[in-house]
């Protein structure tokens, strides 16, 4: 079932949107918060505003609420140019039926050589689906606007980055709201960025799959509302909430333009061959965090 779509014509099945409308699927793994509904009309609009182009560019976004069991039909998968998996308050290593189904879908898309971008929960479930390991963050909650540092040598190995109309920075500020993390990346994957608290902030598997632990789609007001909710629910302590607010104030907010350009560039760069052989920080060679109760 399609939860929401743009008002644009559907391209012929199997075209992947090429030669006309480019088509993307947003897989929402969460329910809309009251704040998101009131201010943005829901998370669908947050994502499309961040990663989409204007209607005149020839682009369509379909939304599937996977947390509610809404998934794209198997016969429609080939017609999409790319897929985005959202964040979620659920654990990506949980055994709920919709999460297992999402993992199976991701494996199918990867086999079809479709581009998949995972955000926060989506980053973690992408890792799980492709053979990596995930679990609770060893350093606890990470909330606020944090500095993410890039592995420059690794970035040069990815073709889609060369098409971005901007210089790649050595680091960029990103909104973080997570208590889980990637423990071990999939075989053949590459770590592209890390931060003080999180070893795997960004990873890629060839040029077909990319996970980002933070939230490039979020704005500072969404972060501040989340901090209020997390402290109000007792998920994080009041002083942790104050520290998160301080990071937002001192940094001036996330480097949204860079992160959104990166995500758009990844999703729109169709037709490039995958490059699984990247001599850098890969799944086989990456330092592993050994924790009890490791889950897939």
From TrEMBL:
It holds the Pfam family GATase. It comes from the Eukaryota. Keywords: Cytoplasm, Hydrolase. Residues 75-219 form the Glutamine amidotransferase domain. Transmembrane segments: none annotated. Its main location: cytoplasm. GO terms for cellular component: cytosol. GO terms for biological process: glucosinolate metabolic process. Pathway: Secondary metabolite biosynthesis. Belongs to the peptidase C26 family. This is Glutamine amidotransferase domain-containing protein. It comes from Urochloa decumbens.
